[in-house]
Amino acid sequence: MIEFPTRYDPGGIEKKWYRFWMESKFFTPDASSKKPPYTIMIPLPNVTGRLTLGHVLNNSLQDILIRYKKLSGHETLWLMGMDHAGIATQVVVEEKLRSQGMTKEDLGREKFIEEVWKWKEEYAKIIRGQLQKAGYSLDWSREQFTLSENYSKKVIKVFVDLYNRGLIYRGEYIINWCPRCLTALSDEQVETEEKPGKLYYIKYPVVGSDESITVATTRPETMLGDTAVCVNPQDKRYRRFIGRRAILPIMEREIQIISDEYVDPEFGTGALKVTPAHDPFDFELAKKHKLEFIDIMNPDGTLNALTRGFNGQDRYEARKQIIEQLKRSGLLEKVEKYKLPLSKCERCDTAIEPRISKQWFVRMKPLAEPALKVVKGNKVRIFPKRWVNLYNYWMENVRDWCISRQLWWGHRIPVYYCNSCYDPDSADSEQGIMVSEAKPARCTNCGSNEIYQDEDVLDTWFSSWLWPFATLGWPDDSKDYRRFYPTQTLVTGWDIIYLWVARMIMAGLEFTKTVPFTNVMFHVMVRDEKGRKMSKSLGNSPDPANLIEKYGADALRFGLLLITPREQDVLFRENSIDVGRKFCNKLWNAARLISMTLEQGEAFDPKKISLYDAWIIERFNLLLMKIQGHFNSFEINAITRELYDFVWHTFCDWYLEFLKIKPSPAARHLLKQLLIVLHPFMPFVTEELYQKFGFSQKSIMLETWPDEIPITNKAAQVDQLVRLIEEIRNVRGIFNIGVKDKITVIIDTKDDMAVFLKENEDTIKRLSGAGDVKYGPPGKESLASIILPEIECYVILSGIDLAREKERLHNEVDFLTKRIDEIKHRLNNPSYVNKASEITRQKEKERLETFLKKKEGIQKAMKRI
Fold this sequence. Notes:
Elements: H1 10-23, E1 37-41, H2 53-71, E2 75-82, H3 86-99, H4 104-107, H5 109-133, E3 139-145, H6 149-164, E4 168-178, E5 183-185, E6 190-205, E7 212-217, E8 228-231, E9 245-248, E10 253-259, E11 271-274, H7 280-289, H8 315-329, E12 332-345, E13 353-362, H9 365-376, E14 381-383, H10 386-396, E15 401-402, E16 404-405, E17 415-418, E18 433-435, E19 451-453, E20 457-458, H11 460-464, H12 467-470, H13 479-484, E21 489-493, H14 497-511, E22 519-523, E23 526-527, H15 544-551, H16 553-562, E24 570-571, H17 575-597, H18 611-632, H19 636-661, H20 666-678, H21 683-692, H22 716-734, E25 743-749, H23 751-759, H24 761-768, E26 770-775, E27 783-787, E28 791-796, H25 802-827, H26 830-835, H27 838-864
Parallel strand pairs: 1-2, 2-3, 8-10, 14-22, 21-22, 23-24, 25-26
Antiparallel strand pairs: 4-5, 4-13, 6-7, 6-12, 8-11, 9-10, 13-15, 16-20, 17-18, 17-19, 25-28, 27-28
Helix pairs in contact: 1-21, 2-16, 9-10, 9-14, 15-16, 16-17, 17-19, 18-19, 18-20, 20-21, 25-27
């Protein structure tokens, strides 16, 4: 007899088995193995803080794939690593210093970076603990960090290579500037949301006349940097002003009135204020018309000395004063309420300031074109397919990537300047600029040894786009690189499709001449009950470690997957994890029951099984087929639901009940196969049960994914038995018959089925609560009718409400009629017939036949009442 506690307690069990797996090195693949490789690279968690439920979802999906592939005979590598997360990590460390009354400037660059490394070590340890607590089979022996010395060398090499090929350049453009973080941001690092604002109508007097041109703006403070007013050349209202000059209010400076087709006469007043240094469209317009660029903003969002009396004022305070001055001078025509898109830094929530700045850029179009082709050519497959269009859109509309950041934490840009001959005020001169993997000893232009490095660091994504191959030894021809690259699958959120996924494909093609992975699985976002994405910055995610303490890791993983649809973001509620906990207990109690009904010494023989065994094995074989199809399409949520339904409603609700009546050695064999199938989803409880039953391998992780179990017995009659018992229970429910109240049933069926039902009469009685079972046609008693394809059954009840029974049958006929009409419509629809597979169409035909037979039987029963 196997010792079994009455309930599953995950606490000590989970720690015990994770330690066992680690000590046994089950997570560490052998690069010399002859098995086919299967590699997944973890989407790097940032060392900014603890993980969220979004990370739990993402990593659970990866762990399922890795464990499944290991059981399927692959040499699996799930590579662990973390991202230095430049801006995000610097922000949280600065906040920590600020709480202590310090700034990074107080420490200086070197000491500040030391503080960030301390933060990194502290939170890397926490993150490792969270990942291990959840049971993830990551290879800890190959852990990587994007700012490690070895990885950094590769990042610098890539910068130098791209620069030498003309794909990296320095330019002065309008960029997204964060006045809080004091750095440039890429478009993808900016979040935009609609906010209530105001539209200010300001009059610009026309020189030499009493007239004025009215412009409309949501950012009146930027008018101090205007260098023109622009109108459409076809706009009759303003045609007479083209070529003249206007007075810029407050600054009292004359500016040009120009014309360009770019201006929409229907928007606002049809006249556009042109601020070249603070608007990306105005920037392009100014270059075209050779206008002056006046930068009026300091890096911290205050106005500078070029704004006269507003020098040093915050941009929003200056706005208030500018509006007051315009009112007093009579140049503010009106103010309207206006909803405007507000762009914010994704890390600190500060409103972005478009600002002209000299930065380093990557030319993206030459890199994007091959990356577009491999997706269109199915060399990289994206799941679900709906995200292909978004990927294509990004690649077809790609813009150059600003990769320089005005931060201290990150990879220093490998650009060096000569103090003697480099002129920082020269816009175009490359004299005295050197790009090198190591600091040059002397200037390559003048020979001076007064060399200094660029202060900026690289965008975080410039290191993480190399993740799939830089972690495996590239550019060296290492054993890991040969064995595990290219990788097979990437699992990530759709929100970084361009930030990371597309760029990794570009980098893989550019530097390794092959795609970095062949499949991309996008999953949905986990959101809080307000619909917000769970994130560290919002602090709106429960700590996964606390949920694991309360419910267990398997419950958290399974419960979260169960509520997560494939293509629709999920609102998290904690009771969903309780569903996972109950499922663990259901499995535990099922195994406990099997352990108590085992006949010692009996081995499983598929040729010597009961019809009940054949019935559950048929369903298990069907489950395996469905799971395989879902794995091929990366429909993990669908597999979770299939497993839940099979274990709870088929295996436990029916087969275990049959087992109580007729024990069978097949149960032990089937439990083993079921544990293996469940293992990727619930690794801890399945390992514990596997070990309790003493199955053959050292660990369930070393088992082989089940094949279909061959059987000769056909169990269609058990199907009818199950449906019969379900319908009898249904009748009890309709007529409120108590569980202990015995009923009499009359069964009218053909000879073979009658023989089978008589042989299994005890099952019918025990599972339906029938006190007596009779055979043959019914008499004239009051009856509740049950009509199945091969069985007609009548429940005798005293005091039956005939009107209610007729109404029930009538409603069922109506329901069946609607279903029949729907199926007929589908089967007669050419579009459906062309798109649906042969298997799907055949299933629909079978459903139609079943519904038609049932409808006919019910109509016969109605005539008998």
